[in-house]
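Changelog-adjacent note: as of this version, every example in the card shows the full chain rather than a window. The one below runs 548 residues end to end.
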Amino acid sequence: MGKGVKRGVSQLLSQINVRRAVQTASFFLFLYLFLSTVHPLRSPIPVDLFLRMSPLVAISAMLGAKDYIARTAIWALIVLIISFFLGRAFCGWVCPMGAILDILDKPFGRWRGRKFLLDRRFRALKFYILAMVLASSLFGTQLAYLFDPISMVTRVFTWSFLAPVQFVLKWIYNSSFVEDHMGFVQVILGKAVMWAFPEGQLFYRMNVLAFLIFLTIVGANALAPRFWCRNLCPLGALLGLISRFPLIRIAVNDRCRDCKRCVLSCKTAAIDYNTIRPSSTECVVCLACVDVCPYDAISLKAFPKRIVPEGHEGREPGPAYSPSRRRILEFTGIGIAWALLTRTGAGAKRSVRGGKVVSEFLIRPPGSRAEEEFLARCIRCGECMRVCPTGGLQPALSEAGMEGFWTPVLIPRIGECVPGCNACGDVCPTQAIERFAPDEKYWLYMGTASIDRSRCIAWAYGKRCVVCEEVCTYKAAYTKVEGGRLVPFVDEGVCVGCGLCERYCPVQPVAAIRVFSWDDKRGWTREQRKEWYEERAKERDRRLGLRG
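Full-length structure tokens:
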């Protein structure tokens, strides 16, 4: 075997296959962590690891909160340092969105035109989107959730894929054919369902919309490979700015014979057609150019010298796509305008609280920060909804207006907040939901239950019903005789709004006891809320005869 062939084989094994192996391993790690996001958490690796690694998530959340968030900043800094040395290797080697687009690339290749493949007219869009996202975050309104690829993949997997997969697995598990003829399959499926899914069937609002957005991004592969990465992804733009002059990058040597194979194989059109000069801002280090070059003219090198291949002297580069300062200012203005508009509470429902229009059903998870800071931090990744054991945490529609769209709200009729569960605080990458101990749930108020006496079986019809009292873990619901009838009451001082009573109320379709977001205490400190609870708990215990 000749030296050239040996060198080519060695290069192929050491670079191309390594990248593919790392990308595959990263994607399976992402899937493992996603499926491990169940209560109780069992993974030794943080289940929100990939979200922590996104510099876009870290910067936008810290800009919005005007605070340092160590949980995500440390991992994001590591990615930025790697980008300084290796360019946008995160996009080509680690990012789950990039892996999905690579996996689904071939089915779309047949419709792709070569002319559009080399088109750069949309290339600067991602920089404009980045400016818009950061400007909006600076004014306390998140837009990163719409564009951060890791948040997007986590969200769509949770809302759009999790429930159908759970339904199909349970249907197969319960089928008589599997039970009669494939017992081992039933055992495996049973363990898989118990490991990765809660007991009840999941359901998420907005699942169709999330899926359509994801489908559009994937479908854009028909126009160009990694259309999202090369034209629209603000995370890619951020990493590209950091990696304009990486220490290790793709280099072309004087063996180049201008065959253009590298140009046509480049997934992000990072190699200029005329000069065969790679752009580190656009290159995701996929090494496809190394794979196709028949002359061994392209390689990944440290501190490469600028070499002009033979026959390329004096050639002018192709059409530039440098971002326009005017456009950046325009998109920055759009981000600021969006932030100012949404901060007014536009699009929200009904009652007024603290000068803002909000819904009385805006029930946040326990441990959530004060509303303004919560909205500035929350990236709508869906991790808290994924880990909720009852599926009660759902994406907000109009409960918090446009500013709070897709943020988590508790819908007790779908699922209650389980006593003793603190997983939502453990998985929130930006700490919009702070970590808390399970016993703190006694004073982490989410809302207050209220009885509609016109619908209550005991109040309206005089029939005996003590369901709300039986299920209330916090002893906030109780019954007493009034007017010769045993009727329920709610002790608002100790009710935390967990939704157990609403979830199990037998009145259909709307429960006779409902949780409302009254008496929001998220602006209080933990100590203040604990003192409030302890004072009210004394009164409750005296009522129950537990204290003298």
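Structural remarks: The mean pLDDT is 86.
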